[in-house]
Amino acid sequence: TWTPEAFVGMTVSELKEHIGEDKVVLGLSGGVDSSVAAVLLHKAIGSNLYCIFVNNGLLRKDEFESVLHQYKDMGLNVKGVDASARFLDALAGVSDPEEKRKAIGNAFIEVFDAEAHRIEDVKFLAQGTIYPDVIESISVSGGPSATIKSHHNVGGLPDFMKLKVVEPLKMLFKDEVRRVGAELEISNEILGRHPFPGPGLAIRILGDVTGEKVRILQEVDAIFINGLKEWMLYDKVWQAGAILLPVSSVGVMGDERTYEKVVALRAVESTDGMTADWVNLPYDFLQKMSNTIINRVKGVNRVVYDISSKPPATIEWE
Ligand code: XMP
Question: Which enzyme class (predicted)?
């Protein structure tokens, strides 16, 4: 029978054997999979694992600093790279969801490649790929690496993509990854974190993305997520977040009519993201969130709650 303890023991010795004294580069995202992969590799090869954590400026409020700090506390050899401005530049004027994803993907590749080049003589690229990713990349249009390749068919592959790939979690399901993470004593704050899309808040800002919109959405999102935690609802929800809609609505403040942004809150229950039900959050909670958001976040005068399930609605709005 499969146990996290046996998996860790076996995988660490296999990684030692396979990698030897060579250097490995790994991109951390703050999510469960890349974090568990990093700790596992760190256990096997120590500081020969070079982690890179890129701030694309589209993360949750304060997430970059707080997660980077946690990684350092865990003893990982990690470099934080703040490339926010570069991603915002790449997104300027882009409204189409797939174009946004491409712009973000390309910017990430460039930033990561430049950082990987700073590591002398690196031989391996480690990834937190898990079993469902493997299946998906077979069934969906060649998967992420095919997408990356198609973006770079002019100048050839970025160099880091030519490294030998190490994927220690690729036979595991999500719940097994969490159990391995617990075995490795990774904090619940990281292991219990909701899934968050790679393109981040960019696909929760419908239409074009600006720094100001990101700041507004970060504030709204932080109130909602912290609220879920305070009300002990966070762990009952599979994924939650806020969406900034590209419309303004009329409001009233004192004697004045206002014309400000609308945000939608979304919280879903799911096991794998393939299907999802909207969560029946308590009215008291929604009332509190709505009041707090409208009172505290300048530029927002209306909050709605998304009561659509997947299918046919998707979890993200873009
Ligand atoms: P949808 O919106 O397709 O989302 O129901 C299912 C799950 O996938 C996440 N998602 C993404 N993750 N890059 C990612 O890394 C993306 O472009 C992307 N789009 C959606 C979404 O957050 C949900 O967990």
Answer: ligase
Is 314 part of any domain?
no
DSSP string covering 244-304, please?
EEEEEEEEEETTEEEEEEEEEEEEEE-SSSSSBEE----HHHHHHHHHHHHHHSTTEEEEE
What is the number of the ligand 1 atom nearest to the C-alpha of 198? 15
Whether this prediction's pTM lies above 0.90 is answered by yes
The answer, yes or no, to whether any atom of ligand 1 lies below 6 A from the CB of 101, is yes
Residue 88 has pLDDT above 80, yes or no: yes
CATH of the domain at 119: 3.40.50.620
Q: Whose CA is nearest to atom 16 of ligand 1?
A: 197
39 and 127 inside one domain:
yes
User: How large is the ipTM?
Assistant: 0.99
Is residue 310 domain-resident? no
Numbered residues of the known binding site for ATP: 29-35
